[in-house]
């Protein structure tokens, strides 16, 4: 399965590429890790001619008032698509008012609930979040700190891939991909990234 993951920054070159090359760059699935305008996501999914799954990022407060047409919100849910099981959790550390944010304790509660649902129904192949796991692709600056609970989820469920955004690759010398100690492949979807699974 060919997957296009997007997050954080709208990229006109991606839209041009999708529009210009058409079926030569066809994707089976588009996944958004958050902080992208709904109209951009709709355009990407339409040009890619693929279903869209998403989680909200910390700046995606408008999604509640105008839910995305044609996409599926993964927050706290497990979706089966083309034989893959994909689950997600939205938001970042709650560092100020007016964002989609959670404390470490609140995310731990959400992660346990999602973990139980996925564990009892056969596990997951992909975990989609906005924020990375703490200590694995995050930054120690407060707003870009990762969630401890995600490390526990990866150790428990062992998905093949975890997609996240939030930490822009131009913030620091960060890797696009890395391996988590659980064996899960971590991918920072900043701007866009394609991969096969």
Spell out the blueprint of helices and strands:
Elements: E1 2-7, H1 12-21, E2 29-32, H2 38-48, E3 52-54, E4 71-73, E5 78-81, E6 84-89, E7 92-93, E8 101-102, H3 104-120, E9 126-129, H4 148-157, E10 161-164, E11 177-179, E12 185-188, E13 191-196
Parallel strand pairs: 1-2, 2-3, 3-4, 6-9, 7-8, 9-10, 10-12
Antiparallel strand pairs: 1-13, 5-6, 11-12
Helix pairs in contact: 1-2, 3-4
Considering the chains and any ligands shown, give keywords for the structure.
197 residues, alpha/beta, Purple Acid Phosphatase, chain A, domain 2, five-stranded mixed β-sheet, 4 helices
Helix content: 10-25%
Report the count of strand segments.
13
Shape: globular
Radius of gyration: 15 Å
Uncertain runs? none
The quaternary organization reads as single chain
Mean pLDDT, all residues = 92
- Major sheet description: 6 strands, mixed
- The CATH homologous superfamily: Metallo-dependent phosphatases
CATH class: Alpha Beta
**Number of helical segments with 4 or more residues:** 4
Distance between termini? 5 Å
Strand percentage: 25-35%
Class by SSE composition = alpha/beta
**What is the second-level CATH architecture?**
4-Layer Sandwich
**Number of domains in the coordinates?**
1
Strand arrangement within the widest β-sheet reads 5-6-9-10-12-11
Order of helices and strands: EHEHEEEEEEHEHEEEE
CATH topology-level fold name: Purple Acid Phosphatase, chain A, domain 2
């Amino acid at each position: 399965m060919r997957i296009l993951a997007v997050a954080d920054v709208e990229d006109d070159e991606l839209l041009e590429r999708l529009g210009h090359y058409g079926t030569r760059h066809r994707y089976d699935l588009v996944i958004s890790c958050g902080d992208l305008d709904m109209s951009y996501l709709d355009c990407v999914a339409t040009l890619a001619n693929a279903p869209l799954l998403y989680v909200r990022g910390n700046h995606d407060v408008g999604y509640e008032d105008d839910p995305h047409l044609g996409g599926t919100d993964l927050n706290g849910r497990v979706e089966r698509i083309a034989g893959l099981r994909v689950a997600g959790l939205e938001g970042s550390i709650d560092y100020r008012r007016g964002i989609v944010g959670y404390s470490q304790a609140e995310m731990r509660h959400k992660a346990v609930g999602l973990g139980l649902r996925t564990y009892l129904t056969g596990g997951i192949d992909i975990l989609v979040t906005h924020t990375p796991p703490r200590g694995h692709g995050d930054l120690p600056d407060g707003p870009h700190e990762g969630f401890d609970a995600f490390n526990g989820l990866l150790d428990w469920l062992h998905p093949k891939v975890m997609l996240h955004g939030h930490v822009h690759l131009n913030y620091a010398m960060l890797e696009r991909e890395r391996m988590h100690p659980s064996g899960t492949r971590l991918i920072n979807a900043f701007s866009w990234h394609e991969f096969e699974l």
